[in-house]
């Protein structure tokens, strides 16, 4: 069963149809909307500041979502995919965003809607990523304006796929996963 921990008087709150992998960890002042998923070994740690996630957010394997004490909370919009091993720290991510594998987004960065943050990229503190853009590199820079087809063809497809994957674990005879 997923590890759900109350810290500093705050216990995580989950919307409807959320799914937590058996070894996912969700701590403290975390509020998730509907249809969110947190996958294997992912950590959503709202102990030092709050974390707010809108609807249809997937936090993939080994990703970490955190903030900075008294400085930077984390806000994640609708239909956002946080890929394997990514670190999302004290920032704002607007709707329809794909954060690539092992990407890092630092404190007070703002990711506009309809963005892709390429795998392995580092979004430095206080960076503002323009909507409808692809960012890549260390430090990440805008490399192109996003083709609108990528929003539905990749960003929305991935967000929807993770809801489908979660449905595979709802068969209680074959799974020990946690739905909240």
List keywords for this structure.
180 residues, mainly beta, 11-stranded parallel beta sheet, 9-stranded mixed beta sheet, 1 helix
What layout of secondary structure does this protein have?
Elements: E1 3-5, E2 19-20, E3 25-32, E4 37-38, E5 43-53, E6 57-59, E7 64-66, E8 74-76, E9 80-82, E10 87-89, E11 92-93, E12 97-99, E13 104-105, E14 110-111, E15 115-117, E16 122-123, E17 128-129, E18 133-137, E19 140-145, H1 148-168, E20 178-179
Parallel strand pairs: 1-3, 2-4, 3-5, 4-6, 5-7, 5-8, 6-9, 7-10, 8-11, 9-12, 10-13, 11-14, 12-15, 13-16, 14-17, 15-18
Antiparallel strand pairs: 2-20, 18-19
Short structural summary:
The protein contains one helix and 20 strands. It is mainly beta.
Report strand %. 35-45%
Largest sheet: 11 strands, parallel
Q: Rg to the nearest angstrom?
A: 15 Å
Shape: globular
Distance between the termini: 11 Å
Instruction: Kindly report the average pLDDT value.
Output: 95
> In sequence order, what are the helices and strands, one letter per element?
EEEEEEEEEEEEEEEEEEEHE
Helix content: 10-25%
Q: If you had to describe this structure to a student in words, what would you say it looks like?
A:
With 180 residues, the chain is mostly beta strands. Helix content is 12%, strand content 39%. The protein is built from 1 helix and 20 strands. Strands 1, 3, 5, 7, 8, 10, 11, 13, 14, 16 and 17 form an 11-stranded parallel beta sheet that branches. Strands 19-18-15-12-9-6-4-2-20 form a 9-stranded mixed beta sheet, with helices on one face. The protein is globular and about 45 Å long. It starts with a strand and ends with a strand.
